[in-house]
Specification:
This protein is of the alpha/beta class. It has 12 helices and 11 strands.
């Protein structure tokens, strides 16, 4: 008999996908301190300390914590799902934003990701398939004082919701959109999605998908998005930074998150997220900094209108040959967005594009106010009875 821990066996070269602290079936249940992020042990809820709660606001309120933004609902995602990391990151970020919970709203569509509002101790709405953009547009238009977040998946937003997502991008409504991209339909048990690769074998494509997949960043840029970014579930530090930048942006802050579905599409992004390959296959770009990766040994430069990788160690190229990224350039954003599953180039992560542009809700309320100043407050009853009318007999 071997004295090695059976939990340490390699998984065909992959890292185990269970969350930290979780054990295979048959093992003893993890202790409460080792539950996946966002989950709570069963039993009576712990009473919160008396006194005012919420972010520090100068009125004696205590500083909020992640626990203040965590609801009492059991988290019902599969153990090991990348959704846990996104939820934990958002819950950790919220106290830092300084927005009171009663001013925060999470709206979702349909899919595994769309359970999200249940797990946030804020206002929220689990809406209908693909229509979350219409809900958040209406909400932000009526209540511009609210901090509105939209949660969606690649199937929810790019299939039935495709028409809605492009219009919220061009309108530039002041909300944050987090798109969980796992390149599969998870909730409906593993059919191919609009982002699944060509040849993908699933329950709905047993002989391989023939569809050319959507490139989410390229799609939203084509729809005139004013802020577009990409991050990953297995880099919570980077994810938190990107989500904060999306929140600080006044307009539609679109963030695509590469999220692992360990049940129906396990390892889809491992080449970009795992430490054995991440350095060579992922590049994290920043505004006004040269594009380098692989620990600074490689870089990207423009050859005409095409990107190419250069070796910075052989003496032929140096850091000055690398492209310096400018996130305010739509042309560069388009070039970087086309680096999509190319084996010769690393996959880019960061803010692709940021444009200072008035938000839809700001323009709307400015227009309403100008009409009121010019014509006075209107009357709904008068509006309904004026103009051309007729009787049907």
């Amino acid at each position: 008999m071997s004295d090695k821990n059976p939990d340490s066996k390699p998984n065909n070269g992959r890292k185990p996908t269970l969350p930290p602290g979780m054990k295979p079936k048959g093992a003893k249940p993890p202790s409460a301190s080792k539950l996946p992020p966002g989950m709570k042990p069963k039993g009576p809820p712990t009473a919160k300390p008396e006194g005012p709660q919420g972010p520090a606001g100068g009125d004696g309120a205590s500083k909020a914590t992640r626990a203040d933004f965590s609801s009492d609902q059991d988290v019902r995602w599969c153990p090991g799902c990348g959704d846990y990391a996104i939820l934990a990151t958002v819950q950790r970020l919220m106290p830092e934003l300084g927005v009171p919970r009663e001013k925060v709203v999470f709206v979702s569509g349909i899919g595994c990701s769309s359970r999200f509002p249940y797990y946030m101790n804020t206002y929220g709405m689990h809406s209908i398939h693909g229509r979350a953009p219409t809900i958040v547009t209406g909400l932000k238009s009526a209540r511009p004082d609210l901090d509105v977040w939209m949660i969606t998946g690649d199937g929810d937003s790019l299939s039935i919701g495709g028409n809605h997502i492009i219009h919220i991008m061009r309108r530039n409504v002041n909300v944050q959109i987090i798109m969980f991209n796992n390149q599969i339909y998870g909730l409906t048990k593993g059919q191919y999605s609009p982002t699944s690769e060509i040849g993908k074998v699933t329950k709905s494509t047993p002989f391989g998908s023939l569809d050319h997949p959507f490139n989410p960043i390229a799609l939203v840029l084509g729809a005139e998005a004013s802020f577009a970014a990409r991050t990953m579930d297995r880099d919570p530090k980077h994810m938190k930074e990107i989500l904060k930048r999306a929140h600080d942006y006044r307009g539609t802050g679109f963030v695509e998150v590469y999220q692992n579905c360990n049940i129906f599409n396990d390892g889809a992004f491992f080449q970009f997220t795992e430490k054995e390959t991440k350095s060579d296959r992922a590049i994290f770009f920043e505004h006004k900094k040269p594009l380098t990766y692989a620990g600074g040994t490689k870089g990207l430069r423009l050859n005409g209108f095409s990107l190419e990788s250069i070796d910075l160690e052989n003496g032929n190229f140096g850091i000055d040959d690398c492209l310096v990224y400018d996130e305010t350039s739509r042309d560069l954003a388009g070039i970087m967005a086309r680096v999509y599953w190319r084996p010769d180039l690393p996959q880019p992560f960061g803010v692709f594009y940021r444009e200072d542009r008035p938000s839809y809700d700001d323009l709307l309320h400015k227009q309403v106010q100008s009409v009121i100043e010019r014509s006075g407050k209107g009357s709904l009853e008068k509006l309904l009875s004026e103009g051309e009318t007729w009787e049907v007999s």
